[in-house]
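Appendix B.2, paired examples.
Example (i):
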Amino acid sequence: MPKINPLVLAIFLFFLSACATAPYTGRSQFLIVSESQEVSLGEEAYRQILRESVLSRHSDALRIVRKVGERIARVANKPNYQWEFSVIDDPDNVNAFVVPGGKVAIYTGIFPAARDETGLAVVLGHEVAHAIARHAAERMSQGQLLGAGQIIIAGVLGSNPQLANQVLQAYGLGAGVGFVLPFSRSQESEADRIGLILMAKAGYDPRVSLQVWERMEKGDNTKGQGSPPEFLSTHPGYESRTQQLRSWIPEALKYYRPSSQTVELLPSLRSMDSPTARAERELMKRIQAINQRAGDPQGERAVVEALGHLLRMDPSRLNQERQQLRLGHGQYAALRGVSFLARTSLRRVLIAYERGSSWSEMTKRYSIKVTDLLSFMRRLLRTTTNVQSQLRRRSLRPRYRTR
């Protein structure tokens, strides 16, 4: 029988003591991440995602999302959370997300499936449920647990490094399929169940959830988006999900008190769209494309040299400045583009960017158009392609040895 290291035993006892209980379901939870840590990380991630997205400014969309979100947040009983509800203008993205602390964002692509504010309550109730059940903290704690498991295996099998390596490899695969993915699916199911209760308490009929998920499934089938087998997925399949919803709806109906207010329809995707919004979405794609190009050393060099060529500036100076500002290549190039086109200093453009101004707001402020910036980024991508081709030809050029 191998002797267990005292450190390994201490780690095991520490993890054993980190227990909590999920609201409404009463499920035992493993939490070693404090709520303040979780909220701080969530706030940072949320701001970063919004900065890299196109935010909708459609007044009706914002008003309805915030109305429904605030009604659900009131019954969530988390007064210490700073609830915030944003709408991201992306008609192709049928999704929504929440980060710890109550920051929720919904993509306009989910509006057709939701249809009205009750359908929206299904989605927002699910996201708010993730937040109050502290699912993100559980996943972070889970990651630390898996890390500790590797330490324990290495400690027990330390005298046999080859066997330890084989066990750790099998442990990684087994943890993914046998623990991480089922755990993720259980969290999604729990968010569905709690979400039904929250929307019911907020005055929305939980039975509508079945219609919403039916429209979601039809939408996926229409787009030809295949799903992986459920055991390899982070979410339960549609059939499993609807079966679970049917079993939980009677529980949620006990909390349901119909609201006397008229249920509002969500605006259509067509009514929310505009030339400026389309140009801004296209700009974000160009920014992401630049970041992808810079993902390897040769691509990064091509991006830097191409930007220097367009701006008639020293590429090494530009790259050093970007690193100091801690910006992605795409974001930095777009900011430099605004500065170049508007004939103003980068510092002034940076101030507007850091204050949260959108690309359309920044271009308008400096009397240029989003389409002007879009053209600049298109030229940058084209020049990057040319530079990368030249670099590739140089690397393939045969070298001759001289005597």
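Example (ii):
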Amino acid sequence: MSDSIRADGRNANQIRPLRFQNHIAPYAAGSTLIEWGNTRVICGVTIEESVPRWMKEQKVEGGWITAEYSMLPYSTLTRKPRDISKGKLDGRSSEIQRLIGRSIRAAIDLEKLGARTICVDCDVLQADGGTRTAAITGTFVALSLAVKKLIAEKKISSSPILAGVAAVSVGIVAGQPLLDLCYTEDVVASVDMNLVMNSNGEFIELQGSGEEATFSDSQLAELLALGKIGIKDLLTAQQAAIAQG
């Protein structure tokens, strides 16, 4: 691995500075503002004491987790119109919120959750690459805080969380595999990939593609190795944030 310095001073295998500000949304059961480099996302969790209609009709036991994701109009260099102004959900936003939902459901024993729905809301305040990975990583912290509240209120007897979950981007820029791409790196990357993993070292989802380019087995192995380094750092930061309450 090359030790070449990037535009923001990082080595190839370093994530951007990361900080969590918990309880940013007082009315949520759990919330955090994740500041990851210049990307900032508010992740809030609310809990409804009911389950979706389809679960009742199909007599599915346990609870459910659903997610919504949006980029606020002022989160990018040029104003991004709200989805409601277009009359439909942006395709990218729809894809990302489904990814968040899948990722977080993989972290939870839904039967142990009981007949309730966890609603996740991720709102991007500032985008500088990696908004989907920040949303997933921040959501797990918010979820953990919400679960603590459920236990404290004696609504559940023990935590339904199976494992920690975090996500990070990797890519190849000018032939160099890099961890945690910022926006300027992302737009010129020849290969772009997002990894979602749990604290057991298992993959939840991989999203990767060549941007009018291809990549080899050895390059894929390098990207996965970089991603695992980043996930380890993220899981450590998450646990520190959760411990603060």
